[in-house]
């Protein structure tokens, strides 16, 4: 009569953006993106008035998810900044790969495995997005 308890629990988890298994992954990524976007906007807004006027602050902030390439975006793809961002990206690329792999392999798991999946997801994206802030060391000096 109405399906098993497990089926009802699964249907209930699928409803709502902030509920269910995917919500932890979604909220983790969006929280990190929001924080790093704010840091990116602050970094591109600092400096002398002439430097700030030449930077594409809004575009750079919107492209925060590009991680280590954020510095190159801030300098409009200048060749030395792009080269620096590419070198940094080769070191950081495994981080989002681990995040995606953990999400895929640990999907639907509960308990320690489910928590490990969310932790690996969060750490992977944290490292990638932090690469954007690191890239400013070259691009905004």
- The low-pLDDT segments are none
Q: Between the first and last Cα atoms, what is the distance in angstroms?
A: 67 Å
- The helix/strand order is HHHHHHHH
Helix residue percentage: over 70%
Overall number of structural domains:
1
The biggest beta sheet is recorded as: none
Number of helices: 8
Mean of residue pLDDT values:
88
Radius of gyration: 19 Å
Which structural class is indicated by helix and strand composition?
Answer: mainly alpha
Number of E strands:
0
Strand content: under 5%
Q: Can you tell me the overall shape?
A: elongated
How does this model look, in words?
This protein is mainly α and 141 residues long. It has one domain. Helix 2 runs parallel beside helix 8 and helix 7 packs antiparallel against helix 8.
Write the layout of secondary structure elements.
Elements: H1 5-14, H2 21-44, H3 49-54, H4 57-62, H5 70-74, H6 79-92, H7 94-105, H8 111-139
Outline of this structure?
The protein has 141 residues and is mostly helical. The chain contains eight helices and no strands. α2 (21-44) packs parallel to α8, α6 runs antiparallel to α8 and α7 packs antiparallel against α8.
Key terms:
single chain; mainly alpha; 0% strand; elongated
């Amino acid at each position: 009569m109405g399906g098993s308890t497990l089926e009802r629990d699964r249907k209930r988890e699928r409803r709502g953006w902030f509920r269910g298994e995917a919500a932890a992954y979604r909220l983790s990524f969006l929280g990190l993106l929001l924080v790093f976007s704010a840091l990116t906007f602050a970094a591109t807004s600092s400096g002398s008035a002439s430097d700030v006027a030449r930077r594409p602050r809004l575009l750079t902030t919107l492209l925060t998810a590009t991680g280590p390439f954020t510095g190159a975006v801030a300098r409009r793809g200048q060749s030395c900044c792009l080269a620096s961002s590419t070198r940094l990206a080769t070191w950081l690329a495994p981080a989002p790969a681990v995040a995606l792999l953990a999400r895929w392999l640990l999907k639907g798991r509960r308990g320690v495995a489910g928590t490990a999946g969310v932790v690996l997801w969060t750490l992977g994206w944290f490292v990638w997005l932090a690469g954007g802030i690191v890239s400013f060391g070259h691009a905004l000096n």
